[in-house]
Fold:
Amino acid sequence: MIGQGERYVAATLLAAVALVMLVLLVLGGLFLFIGEQASVGTGQYGFGDAVAYAAMNLPRFGLQSLPAGTLIGAMLGIGNLARTHEITALRAAGMGKWRLVRAALMAGLVVVAVALVTGELVAPRLETLADEQKAFAKYNDISFAGQGGAWMRDGDTIINVSTQSSSAEFGSMVVFQFGSDRRLQSVARADHATASGDHVWQLYDYAETRFDDTGVTTRREPRHALASAASADFLQLAVIQPAQMSLGALRKAIDYRRANELSDSTYVFEFWSRIAGTLALLVAVAFAVPFGLGSLRSARSGARLVIGLVIGILYFFLQRVVGSGVTVFQLSPPVVAWLPAALLALAAAAMLWRAR
Structure:
């Protein structure tokens, strides 16, 4: 049965985590807004659009910074309880070390619930909406439809792109060129395409079929330059990257790619990394408990903040560094995805075992 003392500890930790996340979100929103200044003035994209774009991307930023924010907040919350000797009083009243851990995990479950709702329902939709509004404001002279990949009309040219492998590199591209009389002049296909400038694409393994009054002609080129107002950030509207997908969408994408014998390592890594990162929130709050016990409880709040910040940053960067190992070193995506959370769990278990 959960006691009043455990509920008090959980509420204190949640309040500290909420305060830290509020600060991080304010800073994140400011950085997102500053990053949009280069786009302000392009097409109809103005100051208000930049503010709206930054606000709609805040849930994704919050998810990315939540492990570090949870760790820092939990350590500050435990530190406040230790500094005011409330942990000493609770332990004198019979609350042992593992009941403190249970109270911390109660707070962690609330954070996990918020992360799941945000990651599955809020962030993907707002992020997609933000990208759409930004692209339509910047490129209001281009038509767009999102069925069967990305379809764009740029004057007399219609472009279709099927998949996206990075922010500026896409899979197969089909280009339809029409004349002023709306008659089809040519159809071309490229194996993959790369954005090489503001309005220039490099099409690789390019094959073109041209229609005219004299007949049909074909030609092939290893590389072909295509001038188009459709930029990479516009094309990515219909080709969602794995990091923007919910867990359900990732699962469907993995099944689809396996059924069609396509590479799924990036999607598998993102799927397991999302699950591991969510469960790591529980580990983060448990990791803070030893800092309120034994000799560690005498540490100052500033010291706890620095320790939490360092560990949080290391965990954040480790998550991103290990992701490159999936592609570069052909490592197992599930194993690599769980590595940061597993290391944090081992450290938390060792510190809890030694704490008195």
Notes: The longest strand covers residues 200-212. The chain has a mean pLDDT of 81. The chain has two domains: 4-139+242-354, 147-235. Residues 147-235 form one domain.
